[in-house]
Design goal:
heterodimer; A: alpha/beta; B: Rossmann fold; five-stranded parallel β-sheet; binds flavin-adenine dinucleotide; binds adenosine monophosphate; FAD (chain B)
């Protein structure tokens, strides 16, 4: 198989809100947040590692824009088989209320220009900010080809032909078959593979892998890259539109009421 | 100033969101005191333009190039429309195709991009976009001060536009540069039917990530057995390979509308709800009282499925498995 290929995977540490969280102003207090690797990026990491395993000389580099805390997330990617990682952070980024798509594409774009990967894998969407846009915007930023919502990738064609033959998952169980010239950015959909759990050996090895940390200045950009024309002016819990009738009591009482409804609706024969 | 919407179509049909875009676009145009223009790119453009000619549309531009969606063509055509026709608000669907070209257009014309709007307002020269974050647990208002913007809207949030319109239909020469088209659509495939058609079921017991482990599926399988229901699921259960693809309800799975849909351990993400909201009766069991599934449920149990489902099995004379 062809040698020497580089795959960049963008990974985001996403915030998950706890049940019973509170909003203060336009933010959720940190005490109600936990952090995790974005579900879609987990699949993207796996796809990159599978490419590396199928090829002779494929380097996998994980990149994140995130605070020091996110090293845990990026170590998870290293433990699963990424070779090294890049973390972008800066006081100007920390101060920004919202990292919009444009900012993220510019920051990640600079890394792409330096690393010159053949393929960039990102997730369809980040579960917290829910833009669903960073991968395609990044492709445009660096002049790569792209495909969004990819649920199958032909590894052989990538390694041997320099073409990404993908399936794009459309609505209603329909898939589009598309060929994309490399270099390209693919936004990876869940279910494309079975993400592995990191092995103990992987976790140990990850400790000695390199994570380079770059500021905006290191990337040759200026702080205004972190500015946004989007202002979050309000944040609130959506008003419940529920007119549901709730079944109260212990589980047995709840189940009895539910069973009555099912009999009433005549979907369960007695 | 113009509000500009771009229709979505696939394999010969305009998709529903195209008509919802006209409503969202008209509302915004009214608030901003501007015209509403619609564009249709590729496909049977004349027939599509005819169908899109509904009340409130001032002009329709057709870009006659190719049959099916190709993101390079769409990105070039939309950019060219924006640059040549004095567009201020470009409103597109947050569909899978929208995801594949809208961010590129925003980047090309150097406008901000806001995705998945569920509401749009225009107040004193400021566009206010309502969108969700953190798996629909939070709603935010995003304000954009006097500047143009690309915004994508969520499907099924606006009603479709009705009535006959008298829009001027014209052909727009987008001057597509073929050399820059780096993607080739080679075909379509449909997921195979498999052993059951969940869209035919009267009673669906549907299981989500709340089930936690593959082994625990035994529990819902027993419930399905004693109630004669059909088993369906949300996406993660299929992604994990615990159930085959033909059991998945939602945007990329099946559309279902049974007499009763019993959602167990399913949060009610928009892409899931898109596939089951037309069910006659929706019942949800979930530990989180704020789970969005309760917003569309007729009956709700705030509780742990591992407590409630065994009791329910007993209600119908079954024996809950040991898990
Ligand atoms: C392009 C695209 C297409 C998609 N298409 C689909 C689609 O077709 N179908 C689909 O379903 N999704 C689809 N998704 C994914 C969707 O966004 C959600 O990620 C998914 O629906 C979440 O599934 P879930 O509700 O089972 O899991 P989660 O959102 O994780 O919810 C699990 C729920 O279980 C509850 N729970 C946990 N433990 C228990 C317990 N012991 N008892 C009771 N409740 C419990 C939790 O409170 C939570 O509400 C798509 C996403 C994208 C981006
Ligand atoms: N802060 C970030 N750092 C690294 N990658 C990111 C970041 N934000 C978004 N991405 C990538 O872009 C994808 C889509 O995110 P979004 O457009 O924010 O929904 C994610 O799945 C990531 O792969």
């Amino acid at each position: 198989m062809e040698s020497q290929m580089k795959v960049l995977v963008t990974v985001k540490e996403v915030a998950v809100v706890q049940d019973g969280f509170e909003i203060a102003g336009t933010e959720i207090d940190d005490t109600y947040l936990s952090y995790d690797l974005n579900e879609w990026d987990n699949y993207a990491v796996e796809e990159a590692v599978q490419l590396a395993e199928a090829g002779d000389d494929v380097e996998v580099v994980a990149v994140t824009i995130g605070p020091e805390r996110s090293e845990e997330t990026i170590r998870a990617a290293l433990a699963k088989g990424a070779d090294r990682a890049v973390r972008i952070w800066d006081d100007a980024i920390a101060d920004a209320e919202l990292l919009d798509v444009e900012t993220k594409a510019q920051l990640l774009g600079t890394v792409v220009e330096r690393e010159e990967p053949d393929l960039v894998l990102s997730g369809v969407q980040a579960n917290d900010d829910n833009f669903g846009a960073t991968g395609v915007a990044l492709a445009e930023e660096v002049g790569f080809q792209w495909a969004a919502v990819v649920n199958a990738l032909d590894t052989g064609n990538v390694l041997e032909e320099g073409v990404a033959s993908v399936r794009r998952e459309l609505e209603g169980g329909v898939e589009e078959l598309t060929d994309i010239d490399l270099p390209a950015v693919l936004t990876i959909q869940t279910g494309i593979n079975e993400p592995r759990y990191a092995s103990l050996r992987g976790i140990r090895q990850a400790q000695s892998k390199e994570i380079s940390t770059w500021t905006i200045g290191d990337l040759g950009l200026t702080e205004d890259v972190a500015e946004s024309s989007l202002n979050i002016t309000a944040m609130y819990k959506p008003e419940s539109e529920s007119d549901a009738e709730y079944f109260d009591g212990d589980a047995d009482k709840q189940a009895a009421q539910l069973a009555d409804i099912l009999r009433d609706k005549e979907v369960v024969a007695e | 100033m113009t509000v500009f919407v771009v229709a979505d179509h696939r394999r010969g049909d305009l998709r529903d969101v195209s008509f919802e875009l006209l409503t969202a676009g008209r509302e915004l145009a009214d608030a901003a005191g501007t015209d509403l223009h619609a564009a249709v790119i590729s496909g049977d453009t004349d027939a599509f333009a005819d169908k899109l000619n509904r009340e409130g549309v001032d002009a329709i531009h057709v870009v006659d190039y190719g049959e099916e969606f190709n993101h390079d063509v769409y990105a070039q055509a939309a950019t060219s429309l924006v640059e040549n026709l004095g567009v201020d608000f470009l409103v597109v669907p947050n569909s899978v195709n929208g995801l594949d070209y809208a961010p590129a257009v925003a980047s090309r014309v150097d406008w901000p991009y806001v995705s998945d709007a569920v509401d749009l307002g225009y107040v004193d020269g400021t566009l206010e976009i309502t969108r969700e974050m953190y798996g629909s647990k939070v709603e935010t208002t995003v304000a954009i001060d006097d500047g143009p913007v690309v915004v994508s809207i969520r499907g099924a949030e606006w009603p479709p536009a009705e009535g006959d319109g008298d829009a001027v239909v014209s052909t727009f020469d987008a001057d597509i540069d073929e050399d820059t088209v780096g993607s080739t659509v080679t075909g379509f495939e449909e997921a195979d039917g498999g052993d059951v058609d969940i869209s035919e079921a009267e009673f669906l017991v549907s299981i989500g990530r709340g089930i936690e482990e593959e082994e625990n599926l035994e529990l819902v399988e027993e419930l399905v057995d004693v109630t004669d229901a059909i088993l369906s699921s949300s996406r993660p259960v299929v992604d994990n390979g615990w159930l085959p693809e033909n059991r998945q309800v939602g945007q990329s799975g099946k559309q279902v509308a049974p007499d009763v849909y019993l959602a167990i351990g399913i949060s009610g993400a928009v892409q899931h709800v898109a596939g089951m909201k037309n069910s006659d009766t929706i019942i949800a069991i979930n530990t989180d009282p704020n789970a969005p599934i309760f917003d569309i449920a007729d009956y709700g149990i705030v509780g742990d499925l591992f407590d409630v489902v065994p009791e329910l099995i007993e209600q119908f004379g079954g024996t809950p498995p040991d898990i």
